[in-house]
Amino acid sequence: MRILHVLLAVLFLMLQGAAGQVFPRPDNSCLIQNGRCFPGICRRPYYWIGTCSNGYSCCRMGWSR
Hints:
Layout: H1 2-22, H2 28-32, E1 36-38, E2 46-51, E3 57-61
Antiparallel strand pairs: 1-3, 2-3
């Protein structure tokens, strides 16, 4: 009976992981800072403000005065 509980827990975790891949959550941490996720490094007129959850660079446009 105990193994049944373990198998159900593993199945539940696998289903949650599959749902996360089918319906990925957007990376709001960069958007909150008014940034965008770019592969590689930030190029002008953008500057680096952090890293996105997918490993891309979080870049924000520089304000010129």
